[in-house]
Design brief:
Blueprint: H1 2-24, H2 44-106, H3 112-172
């Protein structure tokens, strides 16, 4: 008998344990989700305009990519020229230091005139290198400016043609 009573009390406790938390909750009851309505299919006119907008975004992205590619290529060319010129200046400096050491070794009692002539020769070599490097920098700059202008002009013409094509396509869109 005691066993049956314990079994009944245990079952009651289990039922209350499950039922109490659910009834004690003050939260709003969960509403069943509404069935998803089929989204309206855009009209042919809207689809056409979306396609035109996507074409415009693609066109503009391509032009940005072209400008960036040109800029990156020009930056790399400028860096390569600067690095080459720096290496040439350093090589000239090392060569002139070696030439001076050799000159002083061969002419331990060099006269002031000999030293001035040697120094003038080294200065002339340094000036020739600097002048050649300046010409190379100017030539690179002129070439890069011409490339920028050519890209700008071609992009301007392409944009004009694209806008005309977009205008015609917009008129052709179904209403």
């Amino acid at each position: 008998m005691l066993r049956k009573l314990m079994l009944v009390l245990g079952a009651a406790m289990l039922a209350l344990t499950i039922a109490l938390p659910a009834s004690a909750s003050h939260a709003k009851p969960v509403k069943p989700t509404k069935p998803a309505h089929a989204t309206k299919t855009p009209s042919p006119h809207a689809l056409c305009l979306q396609a035109l907008e996507q074409a415009k975004k693609t066109f503009e992205a391509q032009q940005r990519a072209d400008r960036k590619a040109l800029h990156d290529a020009q930056k790399a060319a400028k860096k390569a020229l600067n690095d080459a010129q720096k290496a040439a200046r350093k090589a000239l400096h090392v060569q002139q230091a070696a030439d001076l050491a050799t000159f002083l070794q061969q002419n331990p009692n060099a006269t002031e005139a000999q030293l001035q002539a040697f120094h003038a020769q080294q200065e002339a070599a340094k000036k020739a290198l600097n002048d050649a490097q300046k010409v190379a920098r100017k030539a690179l700059h002129a070439q890069q400016e011409a490339a920028k202008k050519a890209l700008h002009d071609s992009q301007k013409a392409a944009k004009k043609a694209f806008n005309a094509q977009q205008k015609a396509a917009r008129k052709a869109c179904p209403k």
